[in-house]
Amino acid sequence: MIMTQAIREAIQLRAADETDIPFLMVLRERTMRLHLENSGLEYESEEQLTRVTASFEHARIVQINGVDAGLLKLHRDGNPWYLHQIQIAPEFQGKGHGEAVVRTILAEAAAAGVGVELYVLKVNPARRLYEKLGFRVFDEDELEYRMRTHP
Hints:
37% helix; Aminopeptidase
């Protein structure tokens, strides 16, 4: 998919706050439940709340044309930066929005002279997008691939 200027302009990030937690819990269930269950893991709400609130100071709500549509958690300290979570609501997937967010992160990281690292469940088709954008697997465990770009 070609990332157009219109897609980039449609995306805004805003800091998440506690009032966003209900939205983020629904988003997590809609975007992660199937992948977790397909990995043989149970989807437990308490554990998912822990995941949503972990590193909350880094949480940004992805807005598309002013509508809350996703979550981004990016740790910019160190080298590489760590892309902790990116989730885009299903109705916004497949339209280039998630790719635009990740491309922006990669451009900022390159300008800073650092790479970006993430973990992705082996059953998650997002791995193909990450590979397309230059991420390479450098380690894995039973459930996840660890992927990284280099500056």
